[in-house]
Amino acid sequence: MSIRKGRSVTISDVAEAAGVSRAAVSKVLRNAYGVSPGMRARVESTIEQLGYRPSVAARALRGSSYRLGLEIPYTGARFMTQIVEGAKRAVAGTPYQIILAPADGPEYDTLESLADGLVDGIIAISPLVDQAWLEGLARRVPVVMLGRHDTPAGYDTVTGDDHAGTRAVMEHLLSLGHRRIAHLTEPENVTTPGSGTPHSVRLEVYRACMTEAGLAEHIRVARRDVSGGDAVGAAAALLDLPEPPTAIFAGHDDMAVDALAAVGRTVAVAGYDNTDLAAHPLIDLTSVDQQGMEMGAQAATMLLERLKGRGEPRRFVAATRLLVRGSTSR
Amino acid sequence: MSIRKGRSVTISDVAEAAGVSRAAVSKVLRNAYGVSPGMRARVESTIEQLGYRPSVAARALRGSSYRLGLEIPYTGARFMTQIVEGAKRAVAGTPYQIILAPADGPEYDTLESLADGLVDGIIAISPLVDQAWLEGLARRVPVVMLGRHDTPAGYDTVTGDDHAGTRAVMEHLLSLGHRRIAHLTEPENVTTPGSGTPHSVRLEVYRACMTEAGLAEHIRVARRDVSGGDAVGAAAALLDLPEPPTAIFAGHDDMAVDALAAVGRTVAVAGYDNTDLAAHPLIDLTSVDQQGMEMGAQAATMLLERLKGRGEPRRFVAATRLLVRGSTSR
DNA sequence: GCATGTTTGTAGATCGGTCTTCAACGGGTG
DNA sequence: CACCCGTTGAAGACCGATCTACAAACATGC
Fold first, then answer.
1. Looking at domain B162-289, what is its CATH homologous superfamily?
2. Which of A159, B58, B173, B299 is the most buried (most CB within 10 A)?
3. Which pLDDT score is estimated for A269?
4. What is the DSSP-derived secondary structure letter of residue A21?
5. pLDDT tens digits along A266-310
6. Cβ proximity of A320 and A288 under 8 Å
7. Is the predicted pLDDT of residue A1 greater than 60, yes or no?
8. Contact B323, B288 (CB under 8 A)
9. What confidence tens digit (pLDDT) does each residue in A211-254 have?
10. How many CB atoms lie within 10 A of CB B32?
């Protein structure tokens, strides 16, 4: 144990105590070639005795930090929990650890600061950053992006099948006889057509489904407040329309829950992500499951592959499944 | 921009390009004394041109990493959001950044791995680790602990006023005429009497209030599953008792929401933390607000103070406020 | 017995910064 | 004019690891 007052135990202390060179200790640590069983035992017991732990900073400078950075846009987003849990599961048993970097402002900053030698690789959920910029980042450090429908050269992507998922919701609502179906989504900057964000795809497919059903005139798009954050106001405003919708398809469960707060059970509501709250009897929200845990696990696994040398980009698309619950069926 | 293929831009590159020494560039970076305006301008423009960003690892090795680590027991805990947001707010405008370290297994590991030179200071929510061990940790790196009612020598603490908060809930329930009030809490290891965890205090005060009201015989304590994680089953079991409770006081909102899932509106339910979900009309949960955001902000602020040299331990106790909602009033 | 090859361990450069020490310079002062 | 001193910038040690050479010790083949 022996945690000393000021500085902590370094590799030199271990080397001295064990009567070997620093390089020898390093070899033992890294399980490198050229270590006799005798020396290994001696060094390991010394490490144990002194309570030595290698400095991450020093390691990162020369080799690797054994930390993977996961950038998350907003800590409160329920879907994140699934991603994080999946990623944690995937690195369990490896020497790697997940650290989370909450993005406050522009996502560029957070990503750059992660890339500044703190982590060996990055998993990010940044639909807003430019692809060219990302390719540049990916040249410096391995990157896996979540929720980007683009075709990158230098990084991997993990997405849900937003087309299928959205179609499933819309077909469900249409089959129930709804004609005035509104879509509640993120602010404009996240849904720019062609940008390839999940929410741009969901919006696009919503529009397509409505048009195909001959309901183009009933297309209504409401957006979450940029500032305030919640979607309660936007959903409430839908009810004030001359012809209010009978169903709301929300871009994700958090907004769907906000919608429920605004419209109660008067209007059918469907969400996306199947967060744990959706199954709660008092919420009872119809939602699209896109296997967030699996997405997180895949992302981490792909990152580990990249760290082992893979260069060609890979892509994983999670299958979706519609879970019909009370919010659309009563 | 010029992000080069392999390695990134180092301080030597900047020094060479600007025609000065590495030390000079370092001075400019750190805003250190002894830099002429001319040189500063030249170096800064070179930095800009080359897109140079200092390596965190190299910095951490000698000086500081400008990263504060926030250890969180479970990513899905709603209360965490408040803490994280508060901490982020407190470091905004400083050169420091918050990184989150999710604890998977034993919290010792996560804390140690944070202390391994990755961060300049630690905010942790680890009620289970030993105080002596924490004091040892605090000698190596500045530490602020959340939710520990102990009297440490080497670290700071931030807690809510669990006594007052719990009393407020209990008095509220009692004043409504409830006599069979059950308490839904965490597994045994988190509520060991005298351990000083928030949940041990809440349990203790619950017992005291019941006894004082002459209701000792109606004390019922149910606990969340250690493995499964949720408290639905434990709450449901309460209903199967010969004399089921008419009110449930849950140790925190997440468990209260689980309780609502199990018992619906048949039993009064009160929570703790006033997470954002509590105000939702479909949940409408009476809860104790303990200003999680303020707690997070205070914790970060205290840590910054410690980094500036403060040695004496400080303690912050957040005031609580009972918010009565529908879950106990209809 | 000697050349050759294989372990095993050490020396020392290196990563990219920080920080202390010190030399050079320029301007007052008596 | 000699002296002192504050300012500016450069040199170089240092942080704690990794990793490439390389030397020493030992085994093997002929």
1. Response regulator (3.40.50.2300)
2. B299
3. 98
4. -
5. 999 999 999 999 999 999 999 999 999 999 999 999 999 999 989
6. yes
7. no
8. yes
9. 999 999 999 999 998 877 899 999 999 999 999 999 999 999 99
10. 11
Which of A158, A328, A196 is closest to A260 using CA atoms?
A: A328
- List Cα–Cα distances, B249 to A70, B32, B269, B276, B319, in angstroms: 36, 56, 6, 18, 19
Residues of A in contact with B140 (CB under 8 A): 3, 8
A136 touches chain B (CB under 8 A): yes
d(C-alpha B169, C-alpha A211), whole Å: 53
pLDDT at residue A2 is higher than 90: no
What confidence score (pLDDT) does residue B4 get? 36
pLDDT score for B104: 75
Domains B64-160+292-319 and B162-289 share a fold: yes
- What burial class does residue B89 get, using C-beta atoms within 10 Å of its C-beta: 0-12 exposed, 13-18 middle, 19+ buried? middle
Optimal mutation site among A107, A258, A267, A283, interface B, most CBs of chain B within 10 A: A283
Give strand ranges (E) for B28-155.
67-72, 97-102, 121-124, 143-146
A11-54 has which CATH code?
Answer: 1.10.260.40
Q: Which of A118, A139, A253, A285 to mutate to test the interface with B (most CBs of B within 10 A)?
A: A118
B20 backbone dihedrals φ, ψ, rounded to 5°:
-130, 180
pLDDT of residue B63: 80
Q: Is A30 on the interface with B (CB under 8 A)?
A: no
Residue type at B260?
Answer: L
% of chain A beyond a pLDDT of 70? 98
Number of Cβ within 10 Å of residue A263's Cβ equals 19
Q: A69, A117 in Cβ contact below 8 A?
A: no
Q: Where are the domains of chain A?
A: 11-54, 64-160+292-319, 162-289
Which residue of chain A comes nearest to B51, CA vs CA? A112
Give the CB-side neighbour count of residue A198, counting CA atoms within 13 A: 23
Mean pLDDT per 10-residue section of chain B, whose length is 330 residues: 56 94 94 90 95 94 92 91 96 94 83 90 91 92 95 96 98 97 95 93 98 97 88 96 97 98 96 97 98 98 94 96 93
Dihedral sign computed on CA atoms, order A141, A109, A186, A273: positive
- Tracing tokens 């919701």 back to the chain, one arrives at A169
Distance CA A325, CA A64 (A): 47
Q: Which two tokens stand for residue A272?
A: 């996306």
What b/e sequence results for B66-85 when a residue is b if at least 16 CB atoms lie within 10 Å of its CB, and e otherwise? bbbbbbbbbbbbbbbbbbbb
Q: Topology of domain A64-160+292-319, per CATH?
A: Rossmann fold (3.40.50)
Whole-angstrom Cα distance, residue B116 to residue B108? 12
Q: Which residues of B touch A100 (CB under 8 A)?
A: 75, 99-102
Chain B residue numbers touching A58 (CB-CB < 8 A)? 57, 61, 117
What is the distance between the alpha carbons of residues A231 and A224, in angstroms, rounded to a whole number? 4
